[in-house]
Design brief:
Elements: H1 11-15, E1 30-31, H2 42-54, H3 64-84, E2 91-94, H4 97-107, E3 117-121, H5 130-139, E4 142-146, H6 157-163, E5 168-174, H7 186-195, E6 199-203, H8 215-218, E7 222-226, E8 236-240, H9 242-245, H10 272-277, H11 279-293, H12 300-326, E9 331-334, E10 345-350, H13 355-364, E11 367-368, E12 370-372, H14 377-382, E13 392-396, H15 403-417
Parallel strand pairs: 1-11, 3-4, 3-5, 5-6, 6-7
Antiparallel strand pairs: 2-8, 7-8, 9-10, 10-13, 12-13
Helix pairs in contact: 2-11, 3-11, 3-12, 11-12, 12-15
The protein binds pyridoxal-5'-phosphate.
Residues 96-98, 125, 127-128, 174, 178, 203, 205-206, 226, 236 line the site of pyridoxal-5'-phosphate (PLP).
């Protein structure tokens, strides 16, 4: 049967997997604030509500309900690791990426000692800077900033070469910028960092919604992203390589240290239901894969990668249309004017107008975007944004956006500047 094999992404089918787009009175809202959090797909919310409605008891407690809730929660963890092609032991599920980075930095406090060096970037979200700044202060480490180019916001690999030394213990860098959208060459960076025997920690929060991460191929020591930005529930996923884990100080209760490896950095009691509901992401990718490619015995990891490539291609088409539509407007695009090696996140500095006014203008036309610094405070400051509260406007596209929505957005942007 070849009739359900699509060369391109079937956006209408993808939208049918989200309850939001089925609501007749809401379907006209063009939602471009996806970098702040995507809609969760229907199956995830169904699992979440089933857990809360019928299974909200201590997982693995010795009764039928407890057994069922325990199985659902274990399954959520299993599915996430299968989607990533990683072992369950290597994955910590925390409340958010900020919490995971905090836990990780504290867990480094015995491994990284006085006079050791760590490198953070000016391009990152504060979530992956502040915790390392605090660790550096507390442990008297030498903290180095990998600076961005003030005009483009880009990181230059030659600058990293100049910062790395025999004393470097850790480099922390974003996979892609939540402001300028550029994708950093993580494999290349990891190879450089490892030559000095240092560890590399990567923030994949901005990257993952656009390309489901292929963490195995990056060769990194730690990688974090947030599932509320990848159509799931509000959790942070943190991969830690076994080698890195062996250097870290456990952050769990002492009596859990020898139970499960994934408990070592599990510093809080999780929301059982939201972990259980992550299993829905597996169903989501499976369903999309079946629709686009037909029956297949490929692994969840392979399926998610294939679907993700289609999504990325679709987003790139939409992004290109947006870039074409804004090229003569009185705005400064922070980042590149083309879609090469970037994802569909676009930040604009308005010349002579307030960002907030544009958000309100678009809001009245049922187009959702946001303004501000998006916690990439240091990056925007370096790039010369003076009013950081009003900040830039950010248009972030997800796979479920359509060409028509982008056309509507471009028309509205042009009307605003008329
Ligand atoms: C690039 C980036 N890193 C980290 C974070 C923090 O993630 P969380 O909200 O899960 O703590 C965000 C949140 O917006 C982000 O955009």
């Amino acid at each position: 049967m070849m009739n359900n094999v699509f060369k391109t992404f079937d956006v209408n089918y993808a939208r049918s997997q989200f309850s939001f787009f089925q609501l007749k009175d809401q379907a006209d809202i063009a939602f471009f604030d996806n970098a702040a959090g995507t809609f969760p797909c229907k199956v995830v919310v169904e699992l979440l509500s089933q857990f809360y409605l019928y299974n909200k008891v201590q997982p693995h407690s010795l009764n039928a309900l407890g057994q069922s809730s325990g199985e659902q929660m274990d399954n959520g963890r299993t599915v996430i690791s299968q989607l990533l092609g990683l072992t369950e032991e290597s994955i910590t599920l925390g409340a958010s990426t900020t919490q995971n980075f905090n836990t990780l930095s504290i867990a480094c406090s015995e491994f990284i000692k006085e006079d050791d060096e760590i490198i953070v970037t000016e391009q990152d979200h504060e979530s992956n800077i502040g915790c390392w700044v605090r660790l550096a202060k507390q442990n008297k480490l030498k903290l180095k900033f990998w600076q961005v180019n003030a005009k483009s916001g880009e990181l230059d690999l030659a600058d990293l070469d100049a910062l790395l030394t025999e004393n470097t213990k850790l480099v922390s860098v974003t996979h892609s910028s939540n402001i300028i959208g550029s994708i950093n060459p993580i494999r290349e960076i990891a190879d450089k960092v490892h030559k000095f025997g240092a560890k590399i920690v990567v923030d994949g929060v901005s990257f993952a919604p656009h390309s489901w991460p292929d963490i195995v191929s990056y060769g990194v020591d730690a990688y974090c992203f947030s599932t509320y930005k990848t159509y799931g529930t509000h959790n942070g996923v943190m991969y830690i390589s076994p080698d890195f884990m062996s250097e870290l100080t456990p952050q769990c209760h002492f009596f859990n240290e020898n139970t499960k490896a994934w408990k070592l950095l599990d510093s809080s009691g999780p929301d059982h239901a939201s972990i259980a509901a992550l299993a829905g992401l597996g169903q989501f990718f499976n369903t999309l894969h079946l629709h686009h490619f037909g029956n297949s015995d490929k692994s969840l990891y392979e399926k998610s990668q294939e679907i993700s490539r289609l999504m990325h291609h679709h987003e790139n088409e939409l992004g290109a249309l947006l870039l074409e539509g804004i090229k003569d407007l009185p705005v400064r695009l922070l980042g590149k004017m083309d879609m090469e090696n970037r994802e569909a996140n676009f930040s604009l500095q308005l010349l002579g107008k307030k960002s907030l006014d544009l958000c309100e203008f678009l809001g009245k036309r049922d187009i959702a975007i946001s303004n501000g610094h998006f916690y990439a405070y240091r990056l925007l400051e370096k790039m010369g944004i003076e009013d950081l509260e009003d900040g830039v406007i950010r248009i972030s596209i997800a796979h479920y956006n359509t060409l028509d929505e982008v056309k509507r957005l471009v028309g509205a942007l042009r009307d605003f500047f008329d």
